[in-house]
Amino acid sequence: MSPTPTDVPDSGRSPVARRTVLGAMAAGAAAPGLLALSSPASAVPASPAESVSPARQPSALPGGGDLGPNVIVFDPSTPGIQARLDQIFRQQESAQFGTGRYAFLFKPGTYNGLNAQLGFYTSIAGLGLSPDDTTINGDVTVDAGWFNGNATQNFWRSAENLALSPVSGTNRWAVAQAAPFRRMHVKGGLNLAPDGYGWASGGYIADSRIDGSVGPYSQQQWYTRDSSVGGWVNAVWNMVFSGVQGAPAQSFPNPPYTTLDTTPVSREKPFLYLNGSEYRVFLPEKRVNARGTTWGNGTPRGSSLPLSQFYVAKPGVTAATLNAALTQGLHLLLTPGIYHLDRPIQVNRAGTVVLGLGYATLIPDNGVTVLRTADVDGVRLAGFLIDAGPVNSTTLLEIGPAGASVDHSANPTTVQDVFVRIGGAGAGKATTSMVVNSRHTIVDHTWVWRADHGAGVGWDTNRADYGIRVNGDDVLATGLFVEHFNKYDVQWYGQRGRTIFFQNEKAYDAPNQAAIQNGSVKGYAAYKVADSVTTHEGWGLGSYCYYNVAPTIVQHHGFAAPNRPGVKFHDLLVVSLGGNGQYERVINDTGAPTSGTSTVPSTVVSYP
Questions:
Q1: DSSP assignment of 30-59
Q2: Which of 93, 398, 483, 505 is catalytic?
Q3: Is 505 a catalytic site residue?
Q4: Is there a cis peptide before residue 203, judged by omega within 30 degrees of 0?
Q5: Tell me, what's the pLDDT at 38?
Q6: Distance of alpha carbon 457 from the chain centroid
Q7: What is the pTM of this model?
Q8: Distance CA 551, CA 579 (A)
């Protein structure tokens, strides 16, 4: 029997702290027998690349082509679909830091009797223009049997652009960070907790319709954007909604619902689809004050590009080749796998799309930056993982150059489902993970994570002082997850910045109070707005501490900002997990301290 809201497991038994239990997962080898499935033959050469010598120009790189062995495409007549799904799940179920990367793509049509269980680094998506073009009479399931019913490490997987009719009437999606649920139509309910209602700490839904109720149960926090729900069952610490039809009314902190009627600016993630037999990438248009899905009234609004305008990259390709493709005017489609880069990918052209499939993973060699963009309109970065290398990178991702000042309000850059990891899969270091310099950038769902478990983890082993630094003005973050950095997790220097939903944990592994001392302040705030900022606003922001190495550590506050009328915060909370470290205040010198061993949030409804 499903618990009622009052039956939700005690949040004092926090799942978040349990992440430290697990070491590195076994590496996932490539599954045998997977066939390379080609896209339509639409390789149309673009203009020649820049010359590399006065005497000779290289051949133009082709667009389009084969999607590689780890993109597995089904149509309703494909035999053995369930067996193939099960094969990959067995390989990926517990391969948290493995090397396997997979994307399941379903052509439009109806599929009966499937249960697609998703493990690590596995994406599932329909190939229609609307979710309702591809219907699974069955389930797309994430559960936590591999981790004894604890869902707090169910990272790095995704579902997109499908309609589901769950067998039991309710689909289970028990995920944590970096597990987006986009453009989905659930013809029934959605259960966000693992079997047994164990620990859970996620997650993100966008542009989706759930006809029945969403039951988060033990999920401690969640962000839902531009969607429609038939109901919402309960809340534990921090449930945030913007532009969601059917969302519960604003009531933070009891129950802790933060509800915005609309999302100020949004533009959905690009996605691959089939137009007849031709693969194309759809580019949804920007919406202002959005509410509800983009596809509920038929064909979504936007434009599309043929696959022939993309360089279809495979693991082993060099950064020089990727840059040559961009110079030719091609976009990038990164097929599943791991890519090593000896120089940055440089995106200079307005409107460039860099789209990853199946958690394509980019690793910098010798301390380089992974990707940089110029100060141009409409770049779209989506669907890939950046994994820091063992040599320290000053930065991993740079959106616009330092000093960027161009107005991009009409056509902003979007960074969507782009995730960053420092350590976990091995030693990694980076001074600042993501720097946003371009104005009007939209960061829509990211998890920037200094690993607290796995391989290559330790206070100085995977040193990473800063998570995200925002220098550009008018930047909007929707669904910001940033955790465990040695100093500030988020630093915001730009004017008129906005954040809707922030989830943070301070670094677990600080060895003592002195290690986190910030001048005269005890600890670095999770979210710091610079003293020079005159206008800033945030809704539904939470920071948690679990100083398990030195439980006597005191963190002065979770949030720091100038105390002036234009800098506003709504619905803030800090939590001490089981008394391992304490907060003295919530924001600046405001808010009650946490105390004792009970995991109870201290909240501030409005600041100043």
A1: PPTTPPP-BPPS-----SPPPPSSSS--PP
A2: 505
A3: yes
A4: yes
A5: 30
A6: 21
A7: 0.91
A8: 7
